[in-house]
Amino acid sequence: MRDRNGSSPSSVVSRMMSLHVRSDLHLARKAWHTLMGLFIVAVYMAGLTRSQGVLVLGGFLAFTLAAEGARLRIPAINEIFMRVWGPLMRSCEVNRFSGTPYYIASALIAVGIFPKPIAALSIAFLAVGDPIASLFGILYGDRSIRFSNGKSLIGTAAGMLACGLVAFLFLQVMNQSQFLELRMDHLVLLSVVGAFAGGGAELLPMEVDDNFAIPVVSGFVLWLAFIVMGVTTVS
Question: What are phi and psi of 20, to 5 degrees?
């Protein structure tokens, strides 16, 4: 579909505003990414059951998919969408799904499959570790090795450190609140496992959006570690 000047809808939208690309710092998107994930974790840990969490996230996912489908099919809706959400979007998302459906879908899977503390922690890895890895990768990635998928060693290392810190603080709170019963050696070991699982998930040779891969991969790895260590969790 073309406008009267022969331009496609995507080029019209692109001319309306200067959208960010993946290599941009794009702090607004990173802040939104973090706040959305931490909000999901806070609401879930505040008292929602697994079934309630699945119901709420499923509703949000359905709404998001409907909104994305509408904007991709109707240029006028896409134009409005970009005017409102453009500061959080990338140029490559004008004509394809944004990262939000993948984000919500991964949170839904985590809540639906994993025990509550593991689900919350895997979503927190996505909320904190992924933006930190991206930030350091953009700022300092050219000074380090780059992997075949374009990720940098320094960005991945920063993401791992962030995930390890998040895991230690979260598990410490769970331990002190008696939501979990962890020995100190188990707490440290699980933090290390979480660091590698959360920060390293983006390096797996899979063509999967990071928003989807990080919670799912790190959740399964943490769940296995909990089982091996004999740590009892609340579903």
Answer: -80, 155
Answer yes or no: are the C-beta atoms of 164 and 139 closer than 8 Å.
no
pLDDT in tens, 41-95: 999 999 899 999 999 999 999 999 999 999 999 999 999 988 888 888 888 888 8
Q: Give the residue numbers spanning the domain of 147.
A: 9-229
Here the tokens at position 223 are: 């769940």
Distance, in Å, from the CA atom of 88 to the CA atom of 13, rounded to the nearest integer, reads: 14
For residues 173 and 165, the answer to whether their CB atoms sit within 8 Å is no
Q: Residues 6 or more apart from 130 whose CB is under 8 A from it? A: 33, 159, 202, 210, 211, 214
CB neighbourhood size of 121 (10 A): 27
The answer to whether the CB of 195 falls within 8 A of the CB of 161 is: yes
Neighbours of 29 (CB within 10 A): 18
Q: What is the pTM of this model?
A: 0.87
| 234 in any annotated domain | no
Q: Is residue 59 part of a domain?
A: yes
Question: How many domains are contained in the chain?
Answer: 1
Q: Tell me, yes or no, whether 149 lies in a domain.
A: yes
